[in-house]
Design brief:
The chain contains eight helices and seven strands, in the order H-H-E-H-E-E-H-E-E-H-H-H-E-E-H. The chain is of the alpha+beta class.
Length: about 240
């Protein structure tokens, strides 16, 4: 089939994106090893400062600052098995993962007053940890980035429903929302192509949709101006023993 007037076939676009993600994972691996070393050195420095702060008049203030840094280091620590090269179905504790992702994104988006609300039918899911973390990272980041400054308190709700066939992951917020025209273009890769201008990957939600769909699931969005936004990811269930066998 030839290319359409609107550009290359969707399959060709996906193939290029998959190749890009594969290259990106190699760089992520290098950065994670580098980050692990930095975390070890920072943790050792925090321990030394904590011991020294007990012997100074400003000890309480120093101890508070060190405690904040220690919490940041804890949020940067990844759980075992969260490496992109070894993404396989394992049992994932959803609550601590959602809380860690929220704390980290709240720091990145300078949304100190934002509240996380959890509505979980199950505390665990059997799924791909790297993919699930990426999904939560992108959806929570989007919710906090587009919070409504005119509303009294920003919140993000992470909900989980379980059926015999799938997990329904729902991330909703009380942010600014978006008009219907924007919702229709939200996952278009071409629309996220401001890579160089923005200095970032720029395709976060498009990659999330692709990851979910390549795993056999679906990702949908419901939103309206001033009404907040809700993303619903339906993730097919896998049997851990069958997958590893």
């Amino acid at each position: 089939m030839s290319e359409s007037r609107n550009g290359p076939r969707p399959r060709a676009t996906e193939d290029r994106l998959v190749a890009y993600v594969a290259d990106l994972e190699l760089e992520v691996d290098r950065l994670r090893r580098h980050n692990h070393h930095i975390q070890q050195e920072a943790r050792a420095a925090v321990d030394r400062i904590q011991r020294l702060s007990l012997n100074t008049p400003q000890g309480a203030e120093v101890a508070g600052a060190v405690a904040g840094l220690a919490a940041l280091l804890d949020d940067l620590r990844e759980q075992p098995g969260y490496h992109p090269a070894h993404d396989q179905v394992v049992a994932i504790a959803v609550r601590p993962l959602a809380e860690q992702v929220f704390r980290w994104q709240r720091r990145l988006q300078a949304a100190e007053g934002a509240e996380l609300r959890l509505d979980l039918e199950s505390e665990h899911v059997d799924w791909f940890p790297v993919r699930l973390r990426h999904v939560l990272d992108s959806l929570v980041s989007n919710a906090l980035k587009y919070r409504d400054p005119d509303k009294a308190g920003a919140w993000v709700r992470v909900g989980l429903r379980v059926s015999p066939e799938a997990y329904e992951l729902r991330v909703s917020d009380n942010g600014r929302g978006m008009p219907e025209a924007d919702r229709g273009r939200l996952f278009e890769l071409s629309r996220r192509a401001a890579l160089a201008r923005n200095g970032g990957v720029g395709v976060g939600l498009a990659i999330v949709k692709l990851l979910v769909e390549q795993s056999g699931g679906t990702l949908d969005v419901d939103s309206g101006p001033g009404q907040g936004t809700t993303f619903v990811a339906v993730l097919p269930r896998f049997d851990v023993d069958d997958y590893l066998g």
